[in-house]
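Hey, I'm writing a tutorial for new members on how sequence and structure tokens pair up, and I'd like a real worked example in the thread rather than a made-up one. If someone can provide the structure for the chain below, I'll link this post from the tutorial.
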Amino acid sequence: METRVLTAHVPVQLAEKVDELATRLERSRGWIVKQALADWIELEEERRRLTLEAMADVDQGNVVDQEEIEKWAASLGTDKPLPRPL
């Protein structure tokens, strides 16, 4: 796999935590940073996918009125909870 060096300035406390983690896991500092970056990118890509999916739902009119949600939420824990709005 082809690689490329990235440089970043990080706070000293964060760098120390990376060093501690690398020692505890018996991994290199580079491995820790690569794992963290890969996980963060995956999370951000999923967040973007879900946002686009939600925006498409709104465009298609698949929404629930806020008042319906508030009435439903207020009914939870009562003797007669309302059915979940769809």
